[in-house]
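Filed under: proteins

Residues; backbone shape codes:
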Amino acid sequence: MTGMFELPWWGYVVYTLVVTHITIAAVTIYLHRHQAHRALDLHWLPSHFFRFWLWFATGMVTKEWTAIHRKHHAKCETAEDPHSPQVLGLGKVLFEGTELYRKESLSQETLERYGHGTPDDWMERHVYTRHSVLGIAVHLIMNFVLFGFVGITIWAVQMIWIPFFAAGVINGVGHYFGYRNFQPEDASTNIVPWAILIGGEELHNNHHAYPSSARLSNRWYEFDIGWLYIRILDALGLARIKKVAPPIRFDRAKTSCDFATLQAVVTHRYQVIAVYAHSLRHACADEMKHLRERAVRVDRATLKRWLHLDGAALPASERERRAAVTSHSNVLATIYMMRDELAAVWQRSTASKEQLVRQLEDWCLRAEASGIAGLQDFSRRLRCYA
């Protein structure tokens, strides 16, 4: 049975890609960057359009999605994280992400604690939340009327698109495979640098480093199509950008740490740790060779993991293993001790600004006196943060 419109095969494909992309745009702009993180304000017109479209195309409820995502950030990679592949396994999150979402949406504690500030008007209470299934039912009927049985297939693709890509790929692959610009205390990754298919959400590591940024791209070669749409809405007066990740600035003339250095290091702490790990990779590789000569077994992945994580964040057994390995290498002992001490600079909330600046300067002096080339180069770079 045919519907009101009969298209060539590529016409159906184009239509499906367009409507699914609108859904992705609604998720990344409205639900994620606007509602969950308040990175931008939206004019009521696009805000309500996105809210209507999500009800019509997915049946998702704004408060539920926002609360679950905020809890993910608050409890990331722990047993309380609603969808961590590090805890539940990649396959579970990738293929059963919708079930994990549905299970968490039933928790009133999650909704009350993390769902504050979401829409609570008449339409939300009496239509979008109360009759969340009605939208996708109307959508199915409309697709059938327009395209016949092909419309049912298009509707099925639309229903699968968000659960698989948003709930599965981003929450699963985005915490498992990919590259990392920053080293936040989680396993988030950037899947690809050209964030188009999922609206910019592919740049997930960047997002976890700067969760309140309306722009998810951070490198010159990264492209965030969601950010492009936000800039267009902003130019039309339909959005107001509130926060973006601050650019990293350097003053090559600086020779000592000051309050500006401290502020920059704290603000860009995840990038600082990433650069630290990168700077010390050759020193760790050289020490690994020396350890093998002494019959001490340790692999490169383990040394790299210890560079990325605070000693206190490691399981007790792994801390003991690190201590055993570093007892055979003064270089590695220094590298990991200095890494933990650097992280402590932004973890000490009771110290005054002046004390923290002195601690940072003292750290740099000891790093430059360590005799480890990578540590010395990193310290000189650190002083230049401005």
Observations:
- The beta strands are 40-42, 194-195, 223-224, 239-241.
- The first strand starts at residue 40 and ends at 42.
